[in-house]
Amino acid sequence: MISAPFSFRLLLSGFLLLVAAGAVAQETAPDAQSPQESVQSPPLPAAEEKATPYDQRLIRLAEILGSVHYLRNLCVGRPEDSWRRSVQELIDKETADEPRRRERLTAAFNRGYRTFASVYTTCTEPATLAEARYRAEGATLASEIIARFGN
């Protein structure tokens, strides 16, 4: 069994708490830019890729977070950046010197965001239901990653 870094476990635990609390919106001033969908992916020096046994799960989690980020902002009615910030922290800690892994996780987040942006332009009952289901799937996935790889 491969041990995940302690900070990674803490970050995933924080994600679970965020989900359990119903993703309480933080009172922040809206950005000067239009809706910020992208997670930042600054260029990093090339280093050897270290594949982890939970990479596919992590990619799915990033995609779920992108979807939830879009749907929460659509349905809450005020800017909420906690989901994007959570995945940015996760990407920063998990892929410190691995630009290809960083790109894959960033692309997954953006793909999740764009998938729902192409379908929902207003908050509807199906959008609310999708957001709740994705939050539940993300919580389950994060729990599985921690239980299996988090020692």
From TrEMBL:
The keyword Ribonucleoprotein does not apply. Coiled coil: none annotated. Keywords: Signal. Residues 1-25 form the signal peptide. Residues 29-51 are annotated as: Disordered. It comes from the Bacteria. Residues 31-41 have a biased composition (Polar residues). InterPro entries: CHP02301. This is TIGR02301 family protein.
